[in-house]
Amino acid sequence: MNPFEYRRPKTLRETLRLLAAAKDGAKLLAGGTDLLIQLKERRTLPSLVVDIKAIPELQRLEHVSQRGLHLGAAVSLNRVLDYPLLAQHFPILAQACVQLGSLQIRSRASVGGNLCNASPAASTAPSLLCLKAQAVIAGPGGRRRILLEDFFQGPNQTALGKDELLVEVFVPTPSPSSRGCYLQLTQRQEMDIPMVNVACLLTLGRGGRCQQARVALGAVAPTPIRARRAEALLEGHALNSQAIQEAAEAAAKESSPIDDVRASAEYRREMVKVLTRRALQSCLEEAASP
Amino acid sequence: MKIPLHITVNGQPREILVEPTRTLLETIRVDLGLTGSKEGCGKGNCGACTVLLNGMAVNSCLVLAVEAEGQEVLTIEGLSQGNRLHPLQQAFLDQGAVQCGFCTPGVLLLAKSLLDTNPHPSEQEIRTAIAGNLCRCTGYDKIVRAIVAASKQKVAP
């Protein structure tokens, strides 16, 4: 690793001061499971590494009933998974977190880091897009709050300015009548980065009519994306196998995957269809068996 | 510039000076001379460097030493109580779960963290838990059998 200075501020104010003083030479360190590899491979050469784990606000993990989950940017995945209300209210987030890396990685890695690293294949992104998560960002001018879908700007690029940091992800509590599913396709069962990942979240009314639909895709576009045409095909219609098939095909058309070491573009597009279909099917089955 | 680091390693408080770029694994192996923890991939894929940090299994190759300030580290050297082996170590011996031995320290510590939180895991839970520990000898079956055997024993006082 190239030499750098290390700081461990205890407040947001101090962190923002360090970021401003470092111009663009600072890197934020949460779990480090992405950053340390980048440092070792000299893909990033910061003059300052700011460890944000000692800032209490970034360790906040609290579900405010009826409203949503405050998920501090530095909270480790294992802490998230141990949170008793997670599986009850946010099963698709739990399904994504538990499939990210190994137990050792999850001891350190955070949802905030997963999002800020902004890999198109980020495991937690599709579920959080479905849940209408918001990014709470602090900067020199104060706070701002944006939808997560506006947070991702490109591969490894986010809406964060050099002098800003992600404070927390706010995840609104979904309707109790919603049903969701997260699926990822990997070559190995564990410890792998998805070739494709898909999340969906549906609110079903009487007679299986789909009142609200969210479908999100990862690893098949420059950023994690919502499949809006698929959502539109589902909303207002009865959820049946034909509607599911049409939505799955629409989602595949909305994806723009590339060929890389993990899979070909053609295979990925086909798998978007398969995973979307399976995820929606799972929601339908879950709704049928209360 | 070196920074003073205060950590407790295997129950002993230690104070050393480290560069910010030093990984916890380098500090354990080079600065403290505890070479039981291994470096395999250096990228968090293989688990050979697994140690317990405040009781949680981590890849010490992906932790900066300075991040461990004020925390407790358990390495393989601290698993036995003197000459008295930890039940997991005894089970690994009894079951022949060690081949070349390179992955063994990491697997043992991962297994300890598993049994600390889930004293009687199913075989599937064990297999899922050790997903981040690669055994290039591919001796997984005996490793799993040994962890099952240890979980059935009364934990030593």
Outline the secondary-structure elements.
The complex is a heterodimer of chains A (290) and B (157).
Chain A (H helix, E strand, L loop, with lengths): L4 E3 L4 H10 L4 E4 L5 H6 L7 E4 L9 E4 L3 E5 L4 H6 L3 H4 L1 H8 L4 H6 L2 H7 L7 H6 L3 E6 L2 E6 H4 E3 L2 E2 L6 E8 L5 E8 L10 E9 L5 E9 L6 E2 L1 H7 L6 H14 L10 H24 L2
Parallel strand pairs in A: 1-3, 2-3
Antiparallel strand pairs in A: 4-5, 5-10, 6-7, 6-10, 8-9, 11-12, 12-13, 13-14
Helix pairs in contact in A: 10-11, 11-12
Chain B lengths: L2 E7 L2 E7 L5 H8 L18 E4 L2 E4 L12 E3 L12 H9 L8 H14 L5 H7 L10 H13 L5
Parallel strand pairs in B: 1-5
Antiparallel strand pairs in B: 1-2, 3-4, 3-5
Helix pairs in contact in B: 2-5
Give an overview in words.
The complex is a heterodimer of chains A (290) and B (157). With 290 residues, chain A is of the alpha+beta class. Helix content of chain A is 35%, strand content 25%. Chain A has twelve helices and 14 strands. Chain A has helices at 12-21, 35-40, 77-82, 86-89, 91-98, 103-108, 111-117, 125-130, 148-151, 228-234, 241-254, 265-288, and strands at residues 5-7, 26-29, 48-51, 61-64, 68-72, 134-139, 142-147, 152-154, 157-158, 165-172, 178-185, 196-204, 210-218, 225-226. In chain A, strand 12 (196-204) and strand 13 form a beta hairpin. In chain A, helix 10 (228-234) packs antiparallel against helix 11 (241-254) and helix 11 packs antiparallel against helix 12. The radius of gyration of chain A is 19 Å and the shape is globular. The mean pLDDT of chain A is 96. Chain B has 157 residues and is α+β, with helices and mostly antiparallel strands. Chain B contains five helices and five strands. Chain B has a five-stranded mixed sheet, with helices on both faces. The longest helix of chain B has 14 residues, at 104-117. Chain B is globular and about 45 Å long. Chain B starts with a strand and ends in a 5-residue tail after the last helix. The mean pLDDT of chain B is 96. The interface between A and B is medium-sized, with 28 and 32 residues.
